[in-house]
Amino acid sequence: MKMIQKQLEDIQSWLEQHAPQIAKQSLNPAANSVEIEGFEHQISRTLPEDFKALYRWHNGMNEEENLGSLFYGMAFLSLATIENRRLELADLVNDLFVLEHAVPQINPSNAYHRDWIQFAHDGGRTGLYLDLAPTALGVSGQVIFIDHDYNVGILVANSIDDLLQQFCQDLQADLYQLNEEALEDENEFLETDPTIDIINWHMSERWARPDFE
């Protein structure tokens, strides 16, 4: 876990230097052990250690003083928000909406799988999920991107640790910048370079899958 702590420290340092409003206003305080254990009890699953380490860093973000974003320009959800969203979508779980296009590591049988824990959201119908129910080709704890508009599932990282490592590398490579329109409204909102924009995956150099269109 030493590596993940270093990654989180590097992310915090980058944000404080380049996006101080996100660092100081958007990101919530750390989740404590009671909150994390309570969340595990609510979902009836044991969370991977790297996911818990992420939430011990910050328990998601809020929009009270700054409309910010984090991974791939998405909102980083608090544990309470994750649970509220799960409750809102509970009726869809049994409808078995099938993903039309998914990489082999993702089980496509239910686009609203209860063992997919959404922790980042774009404000529309896409997001990042912790996948606790992969196929035999995947690994529990992998990070997946689900696009409900296109019924698409893409593997983003093999773990939260790998997601954070890639995020650090992308920050250092200047593949994130502050959205100019948000700045005009005195908000700091991270947006990605088009080459790594997973929300618009079909036009992204990193994520494009012509066979999914």
From TrEMBL:
It holds the Pfam family SMI1_KNR4. Residues 30-166 form the Knr4/Smi1-like domain. InterPro entries: Knr4/Smi1-like_dom, Knr4/Smi1-like_sf, KNR4/SMI1_regulator. It comes from the Bacteria. This is Knr4/Smi1-like domain-containing protein. It comes from Acinetobacter bereziniae NIPH 3.
